[in-house]
């Protein structure tokens, strides 16, 4: 992903944002991979300083500051990790995932464990999903990979984490590594919901609507309640000039949700058929 991410605030927001925020690339045609654009920048050395000074509510800031004082004066590793985890949790509850990740990772550095690395990696991944600045996207993606890969190395069957790592590579200087990882996940688990969805969205963004339709057909065949997949399947049919299928699919989506943003989008497309 690039510039902004597939932000999971609501289904409606995903539908508006996802198609236009991923890097332009061909994801299923190997002969075109040489044309992939490498745009990610290296993270600035002071990026971490930006990560743990959010604009929080006064009550949260007070609690964080009290814990920071205790953290700075704590020599015991167990206590340090406990305080760092607590600060991370306060930031996470306020939606400040980059700051939460920084402190979760600080705890993991003091008392390493698979659970701590995963918590830090997931927080970095959440922050990456909301990042808008190109440099911060690159930095947070790298930190998510760094922490999650420590868990994957010890647990290679964690396909959920492999899928997250794959999507961070999409916005890196080696985006095809992410596509390759998604394909590997699908080899191991052909029904993997997240991998099928992401491959479909990436195909749409690159203009491969027929291929996207195939991916979303697979997705909804295995996961019929996946509303984003059902909607994107309809869009893929529409964009690939399969109007009859598109109309039928949009009508199906109308009966699956009450979300006003989705319904408005469906009506807009139906008016164009």
UniProtKB/TrEMBL annotation:
Keywords: Repeat, TPR repeat. Pfam families: TPR_19, TPR_8. It comes from the Bacteria. TPR repeats lie at residues 81-114, 193-226. InterPro entries: CellSynth/LPSAsmb/PSIAsmb (IPR051012), TPR-like_helical_dom_sf (IPR011990), TPR_rpt (IPR019734). This is Peptidase. It comes from Anditalea andensis. The lineage of its organism: Bacteria, Pseudomonadati, Bacteroidota, Cytophagia, Cytophagales.
